[in-house]
Amino acid sequence: MTELKHYFAPTSLDQAVECLKDGDVTILAGGTDLTPQSQAGRLKIKHTLMNIRHIPQLSGITLEGKEIRIGTLTTITEIMQHPLIRQHLPVLADACDHFASDQIRNAATLGGNICNASPAGDTLIPLLVLDASVELASMPEAKLYRHSMPLSTFFVGPGKTRRSLCELVTCIRIPLPAEGHVARFHKLGTRPALDISTISIGIAGTLKAGILSNVRVAFGAVAPTPVRASQTEKALEGQRLDAATIEKAAEVAHNEVKPIDDVRASAWYRKEMIHNITKRILSHVAQA
Amino acid sequence: MSLKHDIEFTLNGVKRRVTVDVTMTALAMLRDVIGLTGTKYGCGEGECGACTIQVDGMSLNSCLMFAVDCDGRNVTTIEGLANDSKADALREAFVEHGAVQCGFCTPGMIMQADHLVRNECCGDTESIKRGIEGNLCRCTGYKKIVDAIASVSGAQN
């Protein structure tokens, strides 16, 4: 890896992916993760620092057919306040409301939160239970090439994703939820603001006549990446959401996660909280 | 030699051209290159809010921003509020309510309060408290700070 030799602020997507071709590029968006990581020496900026702020098509929230598209540069504040998100995806607005502080929400971008790939990333859990997909752009030949992958397959480790060095995340797509959709997010930390989650939980599904289906459950800060909890999902799928189902699901969740001890909490505490908060969220959904 | 880049932006209403290190933060540029030291370095990682500035009308932490990212944008620092009637009211309220103790958090606190007042984000004291979650006061004088902001925004309870 070479020293930083070049600063580039493209104004079109084509210019940006062209620049990414050689792979030796650090991408700057909101800067709220990149700045402290590079200042503290935890991250070395590559040959080129590319600031993608001036590419208009990377911003904004739109309804496209049966999907909501959120541009990679959209800030957390913009997501939290946008009428489309508040109407169709309130669980995402709720998670954004728990994100860091006002100043950081005003600068941090959705694409940045995804590519930083923290196991505790606040937007990642609601996005996983909303079945979001990531769109990536690159220029393998002379033409712009786009492809998508489910967010659930995007993360491979702390700070590591399946984005190749030649690719740029351009947007996130979220299918419009079906009728009867319910979704909840809970972030557990030691203080409400500027906290990295001890654990976080997202649960979504379709609730019809007391029966929960299309269940998606995701947990944050209990594994090297944000994770979907397939066993917990199975314990809930097609079940009547009564006290027995809820207790069973909470137990399955407790056994399914394999957290570690670290500065924020012990593995034991994390497992207990996964159990208790899964139970609490499901009880609230059942009573709503 | 560190890589340099020329940028042009509006700082407190005046167009500026500056040559900055590409890896430098906006905070370091304001303090060390331009010489505006009203914006404070507290933690350097976005936890304390002492370095809060406004960029294109939004408050943010200048320690979490690359200086090069100011290019083409509209930046306001605490010095830029010196001749601003809305900010006058805030400044007077801080004095009147004794909301300044050691004073180190004050510039960041005023920048954030100004952002909240302008965007009408502080209709009650609860929203003021949420709004200043990203600003720490080590003297812990939060009650007076919240009272001062409430007196300007007209917030009840």
Task: Offer a few descriptive terms.
heterodimer; A: 288 residues; alpha+beta; Uridine Diphospho-n-acetylenolpyruvylglucosamine Reductase, domain 2; Uridine Diphospho-n-acetylenolpyruvylglucosamine Reductase, domain 3; Enolase-like, domain 1; 3 domains; five-stranded antiparallel sheet; globular; B: 157 residues; Ubiquitin-like (UB roll); DNA polymerase, domain 1; 2 domains; five-stranded mixed sheet; 5 strands; 34% helix
Q: Name the helicity range of chain A.
A: 25-40%
Helix-and-strand structural type of chain A: alpha+beta
Continuous helix count of chain A: 11
What is the number of helices of chain B? Answer: 5
Any idea what the radius of gyration of chain B is? Answer: 16 Å
Describe the structure.
The complex is a heterodimer of chains A (288) and B (157). In chain A, 33% of the residues lie in helices and 27% in strands. Chain A has 288 residues and is α+β, with helices and mostly antiparallel strands. Chain A folds into three domains: 6-51, Uridine Diphospho-n-acetylenolpyruvylglucosamine Reductase, domain 2; 56-174, Uridine Diphospho-n-acetylenolpyruvylglucosamine Reductase, domain 3, CATH 3.30.465.10; 181-287, 2-Layer Sandwich (Enolase-like, domain 1). Chain A has a five-stranded antiparallel beta sheet with strand order 4-5-10-6-7. In chain A, strands 11, 12, 13, 14 and 15 form a five-stranded antiparallel beta sheet that branches. In chain A, strand 8 and strand 9 form a beta hairpin. The relative contact order of chain A is 0.12. Chain B has 157 residues and is an alpha+beta fold. Chain B has two domains: 4-77, Beta-grasp domain (Ubiquitin-like (UB roll), Roll); 84-153, DNA polymerase, domain 1 (Orthogonal Bundle). Chain A binds chain B through residues 4-7, 9, 28, 31-32, 34-36, 38-40, 45, 49, 51, 53-54, 77, 100-104, 106-107, 192-194, and chain B through 2-3, 5, 22-23, 25, 44-47, 49, 52, 58-61, 63-66, 68-69, 71-72, 112, 115-116, 130-135.
